[in-house]
Amino acid sequence: QVCAQLCRRPCYCPWVPPRCPRGSPLVLDGCGCCKICARRLGEPCDFLHVCDQSQGLVCDYSSASAGTGATCNFEEDEEGCEVNGRLYRDGEVFQPSCKIQCQCLDGGFNCIPLCQEDVRLPTPDCPHPRRVEIPGKCCPEWICEAQDQHLLQDARAVSPLLPYPCQEWGTDWSACSATCGLGFATRVSNQNRYCRLETQRRLCMLRPCPALPAAFPAVS
């Protein structure tokens, strides 16, 4: 009965398919008639406006009784997170770039840097240390300009072992800088090879930001 009420035959579709936002493929509507933009995680849905099944999403009507309408959610209430238009399962580890590694947890995600954020202070043998990006390498490295303009110094290799025991010290991680979406948490710690105080950062996300309204078809 629902199909007979909402689906008209023959199909009447726009000549030009809609332009979909990034991460939303073109799919057939619930009537199997016209191509529409698949709804993404957290976006409203109904019989006609279907969710992106390729990402494991279904139209969740559990909140419809509360007056908020149905939304796209993972099947069987499985938690997940969306990063740069791609969906990840709960517990999945992924790398948005070579410099950070993230894990999807309870609808959000936590990230840690893969590049050391050590600080190299000037020394007599290296009065002007400078950190630069090296072609073909992900993490920046130190250049000691006093010895050779093109000589790369690996701070982890040239430093001798500490002649004294290091008493580890560090602050707790700060609160996330953003209430929704991607933010940063910071701390000060000397838990590194040189027992040197440094400011460390990691990415954090308390919860996803509310989804933007679905893009409407462009009208010429």
From TrEMBL:
<feature type="domain" description="IGFBP N-terminal">
    <location>
        <begin position="1"/>
        <end position="75"/>
    </location>
</feature>
<keyword id="KW-1015">Disulfide bond</keyword>
<dbReference type="GO" id="GO:0031012">
    <property type="term" value="C:extracellular matrix"/>
</dbReference>
<dbReference type="GO" id="GO:0007165">
    <property type="term" value="P:signal transduction"/>
</dbReference>
<dbReference type="GO" id="GO:0005178">
    <property type="term" value="F:integrin binding"/>
</dbReference>
<dbReference type="GO" id="GO:0045597">
    <property type="term" value="P:positive regulation of cell differentiation"/>
</dbReference>
<dbReference type="InterPro" id="IPR000867">
    <property type="entry name" value="IGFBP-like"/>
</dbReference>
<dbReference type="InterPro" id="IPR036383">
    <property type="entry name" value="TSP1_rpt_sf"/>
</dbReference>
<keyword id="KW-0130">Cell adhesion</keyword>
<dbReference type="GO" id="GO:0008201">
    <property type="term" value="F:heparin binding"/>
</dbReference>
<dbReference type="GO" id="GO:0005634">
    <property type="term" value="C:nucleus"/>
</dbReference>
<dbReference type="GO" id="GO:0005615">
    <property type="term" value="C:extracellular space"/>
</dbReference>
<dbReference type="Pfam" id="PF19035">
    <property type="entry name" value="TSP1_CCN"/>
</dbReference>
<comment type="function">
    <text>May play an important role in modulating bone turnover. Promotes the adhesion of osteoblast cells and inhibits the binding of fibrinogen to integrin receptors. In addition, inhibits osteocalcin production.</text>
</comment>
<dbReference type="InterPro" id="IPR001007">
    <property type="entry name" value="VWF_dom"/>
</dbReference>
<comment type="similarity">
    <text>Belongs to the CCN family.</text>
</comment>
<dbReference type="GO" id="GO:0007155">
    <property type="term" value="P:cell adhesion"/>
</dbReference>
<dbReference type="InterPro" id="IPR000884">
    <property type="entry name" value="TSP1_rpt"/>
</dbReference>
<dbReference type="Pfam" id="PF00219">
    <property type="entry name" value="IGFBP"/>
</dbReference>
<dbReference type="InterPro" id="IPR043973">
    <property type="entry name" value="TSP1_CCN"/>
</dbReference>
<keyword id="KW-0964">Secreted</keyword>
<feature type="domain" description="VWFC">
    <location>
        <begin position="79"/>
        <end position="145"/>
    </location>
</feature>
<keyword id="KW-0732">Signal</keyword>
<dbReference type="Pfam" id="PF00093">
    <property type="entry name" value="VWC"/>
</dbReference>
<dbReference type="InterPro" id="IPR017891">
    <property type="entry name" value="Insulin_GF-bd_Cys-rich_CS"/>
</dbReference>
<protein>
    <recommendedName>
        <fullName>CCN family member 5</fullName>
    </recommendedName>
</protein>
<dbReference type="InterPro" id="IPR050941">
    <property type="entry name" value="CCN"/>
</dbReference>
<dbReference type="InterPro" id="IPR009030">
    <property type="entry name" value="Growth_fac_rcpt_cys_sf"/>
</dbReference>
